[in-house]
Specification:
Layout: E1 15-16, E2 24-32, E3 36-43, E4 49-56, H1 64-75, E5 84-89, E6 93-99, H2 106-113, H3 118-137, E7 140-141, E8 150-152, E9 161-163, E10 170-171, H4 201-215, H5 225-234, H6 249-258, H7 269-273, H8 276-281, H9 291-301, H10 305-315, H11 320-333, E11 341-342, H12 343-353, H13 359-369, E12 376-377, H14 379-386, H15 395-405, E13 412-413, H16 415-422, H17 433-441, E14 451-452, H18 453-461
Helix pairs in contact: 3-4, 4-6, 9-13, 10-14, 10-15, 11-14
Pfam families: EF-hand_7, Pkinase
EC number: 2.7.11.1
Subunit structure: Monomer.
Length: about 475
């Protein structure tokens, strides 16, 4: 059996010091923040649209805040959390390239509609709860959840949402306490004002959001921030706003459980996701995988390591439009909503669709898809295994993947460059030079000891994906 090479998604999120204008055409301003602006940009190779957050270092008192956000985003891999593409930096500015969500803020849509129906609100909450459950399971507390930090991917009324702005987020262990009073007054949990709190504060914020979605008004009000904070600290709210007149008791029950003042009795994101109102309004569809994706998974199993790494690079850069159908299948298979597919969840689906598959082949499939070897199938891993060739027929994606390996831009991928990519910039690795030479020899048609662009394209085009 060939040696399994662990590949991490974050290896493909580059931190560059080159000129961003060489890779992107930056155009109109689409947003603004305390420390900089957000611009629309077009990738010169793939022509994909991105959002570029431009941070002026001189305006940032604590630059570590932004370093923190970048490092957290690199580790988060969920269909409802904004995807970071790469970063650029010079002496004055930092550029964070993110996926472009063109549908606007949840806040703006709430203002436009006044209130959402229960079905609409449940759909929104199911996405947000899944994302926060994933964050909490990975030791991240967001600390600034609000409708302004939830963006729609498209203008479509049924568009998916993405949580953004992890600048105030914190790494936290299960038993850890946080102490900083940070966030937006309307959405702060009462215990944050006492200076000792846990990640469960995010669930309070989600309760405030749900209250607002169904009523059009916040549960805690005041003439100024001090009054708002006092109202929050008291933790008393009612269902008197007119918007609640026809809201079900199930929905009100979930609000009460999320807005429980005592954090030790407050419902968790996982419990809220399984609440009867969420599951009843938005029933979980029967997990399914089309035959084309099953064939893709089978072909992925037979791909060599360099190809798997290249496919993961491409999967991490594709737009939501490119992957929309695969994303739906991922979410359907992720029955418990924790943002990953467990080995059992995947095995159950594949077995139900192809009863003839052997247990041994199922083990091999799961092992191949678990590219980072963490015991689950992460979102980008699933995308990588299911990619159809049409998803990356755009030559810009292929060219970018090749250039990610070709560090010195010589037009050839060498053993040293493969080692650098597969090491995740770490010099120490279990891979020997012979291991990498063998990988290259499988692709190196002209036997010159390296991979040129033609050989790279041939590798990607081999009956790898339909």
């Amino acid at each position: 059996m060939k040696k399994k090479v662990v590949i991490e998604r974050e290896w493909f999120i580059s931190s560059k010091t080159t000129d961003i204008n060489a890779d992107y055409v930056i155009s109109k301003e689409i947003g603004t923040g305390a420390y900089g602006k957000v611009f629309l940009a077009e990738d010169r190779r793939s022509l994909s649209l991105r959002a570029v957050k431009v941070i002026q270092k001189i305006r940032v008192q604590d630059y570590q805040t932004f370093v923190n956000e970048i490092e957290i985003l690199k580790k988060l891999d969920h269909p409802n959390i904004v995807n970071i593409i790469e970063t650029y930096e010079n002496e004055r500015l930092c550029f964070v390239v993110l996926e472009h969500c063109r549908g606007g803020e949840l806040f703006d849509r709430l203002v436009k509609l006044s209130v959402f129906s229960e079905a609409q609100a449940a759909s929104i909450m199911k996405q947000l709860l899944s994302a926060i459950m994933y964050c909490h399971n990975h030791g991240i507390c967001h600390r600034d959840l609000k409708p302004e930090n939830c963006l729609y991917v498209t203008e479509d009324e049924n568009s998916e949402l993405k949580i953004i702005d992890f600048g105030l987020s914190a790494h936290i262990k299960e038993e850890d306490l946080l102490h900083d009073l940070t966030g937006t007054p309307y959405y702060l949990a009462p215990e944050m004002m006492s200076g000792n709190y846990t990640k469960i504060v995010d669930c309070w914020s989600l309760g405030v959001i749900l209250y607002m979605l169904l009523s059009g008004t916040p549960p805690f009000n005041g003439k100024d921030n001090n009054e708002i904070l006092m109202s929050v600290y008291n933790g008393c709210f009612t269902f008197r706003p007119p918007g609640f007149k026809n809201v079900s008791d199930f929905a009100k029950d979930l609000i009460c459980r999320l807005l429980t003042k005592d954090p030790s009795h407050r419902i968790t994101a996982q419990q809220a996701y399984m609440h009867p109102w969420i599951q009843g309004c938005i029933p979980t569809p029967y997990p399914d995988l089309p035959q084309t994706l099953l064939v893709s998974l089978k072909n992925f199993m037979q791909s060599n390591t360099i190809k798997k790494a290249s496919l993961m690079y491409i999967a991490s850069k594709l737009t939501e439009y490119d992957i929309r159908s695969i994303r739906k299948h991922f979410k359907d298979i992720d029955v418990n909503g924790d943002g990953v597919i467990s080995k059992l969840e995947l095995i159950n689906v594949v077995k139900s669709l192809t009863p003839e598959v052997t247990d041994e082949n199922l083990k091999i499939l799961v092992s191949n898809l678990d590219i980072n070897d963490n015991g689950n199938i992460d979102y980008t891993e699933f995308l990588t295994g299911c990619l159809l060739r049409k998803s990356f027929s755009n030559s810009g994606y292929l060219e970018s993947a090749f250039k990610h390996f070709d560090k010195d831009e010589s037009g050839f991928i060498t053993t040293t460059e493969v080692r650098e990519v597969l090491n995740g910039q770490d010099i120490v690795h279990k891979l020997s030079t012979n291991d990498i030479d063998l990988m290259i020899s499988e692709i190196d048609k002209n036997r010159d000891g390296c991979i040129d662009y033609r050989e790279f394209i041939d590798m990607m085009a081999q009956r790898s994906l339909l």
